Amino acid sequence: MGAGKNVLLIIAGGIAAYKALDVIRRGRERGLCFRVILTRSGAEFVTPLSVAALAGSKAYSELFSLTDEAEMGHIRLVREADLVLVAPATADLIAKMANGFADDLASTALLANEKPVLIAPSMNFVMWRHPAVQANVAALRARGVATVGPGAGDLACGEVGDGRLAEPIDIVNAALRLLSPGPLSPGPLSPGPLSGLKALVTSGPTYEAIDPVRFIGNRSSGRQGHAIAAALAAAGAETTLVTGPTALADPAGCTVHRIESAAEMLAKVQQSLPADIAVAAAAVSDWRPASEATQKMKKREGGEPPRIELATNADILATISAPGPKRPRLVVGFAAETEKVIEHATAKRRKKQCDWILANDVSAPTGTFGGADNKVHVITADGTEEWPRLSKTELAERLVARIAETFKSAKS
């Protein structure tokens, strides 16, 4: 798939550096060629010998090595690359990139580079959320630097939260997307099983405003919807993602529309139709305040809470599934349930008129909302199929493989 494309991989100093070895392995399986810059701190976690053995070429580390500068200088390293990939990208290296520092081989090569850049951030969740880091990442994105991850989950420090390095296969897929022919090409390097098809995905929660500072929302992280959008794009589909408020990076290869309310999501979904495939993975609020206060609501005398009258939001999944010229050929919904999961989801599939429903139990202790993995039952007109607990990335890939097989069977 990589067709001999050259990737300059920069491995910075974080505990997730060991995953960069798997990035090399998986990338080479797909035809990518690697040269590697290993920072001094990166070498504290993985050895130059390990990197060289997997990459098939030596790892470079010193800016002032006369031998390396004579044989393969930092200018030549970036000139001969088709893509520069930084994995893991630490807070320190991100800051250097954003502010133009060049005090070692990695930062100097990045500053001398004119090729596409992809970074995979990895750090403690407090560091990731720090305004300085977010400002640096925003500055890089504004300059055209692509990002993949980070995800949420268990961190090396023992804490749980955002900052986990994206999975190696997700990093490789993002790199392949950036190496696709043409700067705006939505398809992968080689035609994928869904090439020529259009896909629409909804993801994340919706926020329904009570007043300028308060809202009704839910615990959805958007991780499952984003993973499905990324998998559809990697399979060749021209993918549009409509997402509510999340802390996730935009999936590579997708057209992304960010909204807040259910009404905004519905409007953007309708603008994005027609499509061949629709996956409604968003956790859309069923209700909204009937009226939004224009000023912050104040506490009443005696502490009595205000009465908030609710109105029903439009049903986005039912709208997509309704018969008509813009109805996708395949509509997949999600049913987040806390009891009678299969029974309620089966009834929901009939009521909404969608083709498939993926039912999951979001009650404690499974922790599906905001968690790193998911377990679903796939409910169709033909019956129910139980899938094992999978990472949300693996579930997305399995779902897209099933979608691809369905469209392949329809052609034959």
Structure explained in plain terms:
33% of the residues lie in helices and 23% in strands. Helix 1 (18-29) packs parallel to helix 2 (48-55). The chain has an 8-stranded mixed beta sheet with strand order 13-12-9-14-17-18-20-21, sandwiched between helices. The chain has a 6-stranded parallel beta sheet with strand order 3-2-1-4-5-6, with helices on both faces. The radius of gyration is 23 Å and the shape is globular. The protein is an alpha/beta fold and 412 residues long. The chain folds into 2 domains: 6-178, Rossmann fold (3-Layer(aba) Sandwich); 198-294 and 304-411, Rossmann fold (3-Layer(aba) Sandwich), CATH 3.40.50.10300. It is built from 14 helices and 22 strands.
Describe the structure in brief.
This protein folds into two domains: 6-178, Flavin prenyltransferase-like (Rossmann fold); 198-294 and 304-411, 3-Layer(aba) Sandwich (Rossmann fold), CATH 3.40.50.10300. It has 14 helices and 22 strands.
List the helices and strands and how they pair.
Blueprint (H helix, E strand, L loop, with lengths): L5 E6 L6 H12 L3 E6 L9 H8 L3 E2 L5 H7 L1 H6 L3 E7 L1 H9 L5 H7 L5 E5 L3 H5 L1 H12 L3 E2 L3 E4 L5 E5 L3 H11 L19 E6 L4 E2 L5 E2 L6 H12 L3 E6 L10 E5 L3 H11 L4 E4 L6 E3 L20 E3 L3 H6 L8 E8 L3 H12 L3 E6 L11 E2 L2 E4 L2 E4 L3 E2 H20 L1
Parallel strand pairs: 1-2, 1-4, 2-3, 4-5, 5-6, 9-12, 9-14, 12-13, 14-17, 17-18
Antiparallel strand pairs: 7-8, 10-11, 15-16, 18-20, 19-22, 20-21
